[in-house]
Automatic annotation (TrEMBL):
One of its GO terms (biological process) is transcription initiation at RNA polymerase III promoter. It is found in: Nucleus. GO terms for cellular component: RNA polymerase III complex. This is Uncharacterized protein. It comes from Gonapodya prolifera (strain JEL478). Keywords: DNA-directed RNA polymerase, Nucleus, Transcription.
């Protein structure tokens, strides 16, 4: 989920930080410049891990008196690998699917065709509901809704970087940087990291909409870094862990009654 990336940059330190040790001042400036920002094809920067090299400072006497140092450092970066299993919480949902947040990163979309088998959308409650394969769809006891802020386990299907480049015209409207259409529609470039081998029809359809995150109104919003995820897995275990805990407790209860 987190990786270390080596970066080279010229870091500028203002006079107000001259009283600090040089490495502390440089680290502060790097964090101020990179933290919580997306580097294209690198990932979401979290913070400095360490400094590898710090060159001789050059003082800008004719400017504000600050100095600059050529610096080589390592950053902690959020960039999960394809097929990695992650945990998050439900941020929002609609007929288009589900949006998941990890607290520090919200741009994760589960398209409607990537839910566990037996999942359907309830227009009355505006929620997705999962019914186990051996359950009764009409029995409320067998219905497991996707509630707001519920804990979810999902698998990363694809990633997409967008540098907000040239705005291009296309049928049906204008899209930035190649753009992404609404769920189920056409999209721009494919996933940056690709998808695992043997992707099913649902995964293929999900890959087609990579490039944006679905907003509250169901329209695709272009983000600098977005993930597409799935909860449809042959091995099971994806979705809300509480569902499987409840099923296990019911089975244990039934076995106890038989004894």
């Amino acid at each position: 989920m987190f990786v270390l990336s080596v970066i080279r940059d010229i870091i500028r330190v203002p006079p107000v930080q001259f009283a600090q040790p040089r490495n502390d001042a440089i680290t502060h400036q790097i964090n101020d410049k990179y933290a919580n920002r997306v580097l294209h094809n690198v990932g979401l920067c979290i913070r400095v891990f360490d400094l590898l090299e710090v060159g001789d400072p050059i003082v800008h006497a004719v400017a504000d008196g600050s100095y600059s140092c050529p610096t080589k450092f390592r950053l902690v970066v959020f960039r999960p690998f394809i097929d990695e299993i992650l945990h998050g919480r439900v941020h929002s949902q609609g007929e288009w699917g589900l949006r998941i947040t990890m607290g520090f990163f919200d741009d994760i979309t589960v398209p409607k065709n990537c839910f566990p088998q037996g999942t359907r959308y309830d227009a009355k409650t505006s929620k997705w509901i999962w019914v186990p394969p051996d359950g009764d769809p009409d029995d409320p006891d067998w219905q497991y809704p996707f509630g707001h802020n519920d804990h979810m386990r999902f698998r990363v299907l694809a990633e997409k970087f967008d540098d907000g480049g040239q705005v291009v015209e296309r049928a049906g409207g204008v899209a930035a940087g190649g753009g992404a259409g609404p769920p189920g529609g056409g999209a721009g470039a494919g996933a940056g990291g690709g998808a695992g081998a043997g992707a099913g029809a649902g995964e293929a359809a999900a890959l087609a909409m990579v490039g944006g995150v679905v907003g509250q109104d169901g329209a695709a919003v272009v983000r600098p870094y977005a993930l597409t995820a799935t909860m449809d897995d042959e091995l099971g275990g994806l979705g809300n862990p509480a569902w499987f805990a409840s099923a296990a407790e019911e089975e244990e209860g039934g076995d106890a009654m038989e004894m």
